[in-house]
Each structure stands twice: as C-alpha cells, then as structure tokens.
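#struct-help
A.M.: can someone run this one for me? Single chain, 297 residues.
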Amino acid sequence: MRQIDDLIDPLSKALRQDILSSNKLHGDDTTVPVLTPGLGKTKTGRLWVYVRDDRGFSGKSKPAAFYCYSPDRKGIHPQEHLKGYKGTLQADGYAGYNGLYKTDTLDNKPNIVEAACWAHARRKFYEDYENTKSTYSHEILKRIGLLYDVEREIKGRPPDERTAARKEKSLPVIDELKKYLGCIQGNISGKSPLASAIRYALKRWAALQTYIHDGTIEIDNNIAERAMRPIALGRKNYLFAGSDRGGEAAATFYSLIETCKLNNINPQDYLTDMLSCIADHQINKIDQLLPQNFQTY
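D.P.: on it. Structure tokens below:
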C-alpha cells in the first residue's frame, strides 16, 4: 500500500494543481464514517470536493473533480485546500467558507469571489410550502422558477450571450423578488420557517447575483452536489474508512474515478492502464496521466 501511495501522490498533486488553475470552481462537503483506532467505534470525518465543469457554457477546459479528506469540518480546511487560488467559488452557505472571501488588503478585492446557490435558497422555500402550503412560498417558488426558465434557454451558449440574457431577463425578476421578500417580512412571524428562509436568502443576496454578471458561472451548485452522490451511495455499501489515512486514500481515488466519469472514461480501464505505466513515467510529465488526458498517453 505504501508503494501505491508513493506512486499516486504526485498524480493527486497534479490534479489539485490543474483544478486550481480554473477561473471557477464548485465546492461541497459531506460526512464519512472513520474508525477511531483503539476505541472500536467510528467518528465523523468529512470529504470535500472541488469541481471544474465548464460544459454549461461550452468551455474548453475538461471537467475534473478533486476530493480532500479532513477529520472534522473546521473552516480552516477549505482555506488550506484552496490556498493560493484566485477565482470564483460556488458553494452553499456554510460559514466555514467565509474566510475564503476576505478582501485582500493590497487591492481591496477578494482573491476568491463568492457565488451562492439558488437551489439551496429555493429548497428552504420549497420545504415551507410542502409543510404549510403558504401562498407566499408558492409565489416565491414561481419567481425563482422564472430564473431557471432563463437558464434552460441559454444552456451551452457562450458566456457573453448568457450574461446578456441574464441581465435582460433574470435581473428584473431578482430585483422584484427582493422587494417581495421585504414586504413579506412585515406580515409573518420572525420565528417561522418562512422568515428563516427569507433571512437566508437576503443575507446572501449579493452572492446570489454573482452569476448574473458572469456567464461562466451557474445559477446553482448542483454540479458539486452531484459529485457527492457517490459518497452518499458508498456510505450504504461500506462500513467506514479504517483511519484518517484511509480517508485521505479514499479522497485520492474518488478524485481519479469521478474525473474519469466526468470525461466519459471507464474508471477500471483508466486505473489499470495508469497503474501499469506510472512507475516508469517521467515525474515532470505526470499531468499526462491525469484522467482528463487519458487518451493522450
């Protein structure tokens, strides 16, 4: 196992470097059970994912996913994962990401721009409507639906066309929605789930509009959420990672396998071929062995 780790580690680092060269990433995290050595029980670790997928605007970069393991969910972990990164991160409202969006003291601009997720905002209103059949929540869902109607129209179109369409069609909807949310707040209990949903959205309002002004950004973070589904399925099929080191190894192989799947490559074929030649491959050309470059080596 140690020998395989030594071979795979440079490949994992090359994949991380490739991911961090992107202008925009999607991020998410989820739990993973990890055995606590000597105690005979498990603890809760985390697997984080950062995904590049530019197919929504027909971008030229090939999609890729990079997973990281941590023994807890402290905000320091995403800061370490994205150290040196400059671009846009689309993620949920987890407070641990906030440290990434701090303004650089040199140019008064953040190195990482926050793009919030309309799917997360919508989900809270949907849950309220399911539970209460509120006419307020129903109207909010209809208005958010108009934003998704625009996205279906412009999927796959160049960034400048997407930006123009969003400014023309989506921005007025968003402006009116904000006014509507403000009016509702005065008519409902501040302790209600609907009020909580409104506060969640308004607190992130600027970040919810980031996608309007950049055609390379998506309306939501569903790309990262889809990348977490294999882990959720995995939790049903295996008991736990054997240790923190096992969690790190799992993150590495999730990275390679899911990047294969994003590029329509058979993971077993890739791993068989890659492992058969990596020991003799030039270290300064390790990027040639990344899944997205599978056809080139």
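A.M.: thanks! The chain has two domains: 2-114+221-296, 118-213.
D.P.: also worth noting: Residues 87 and 260 are 24 Å apart (CA to CA).
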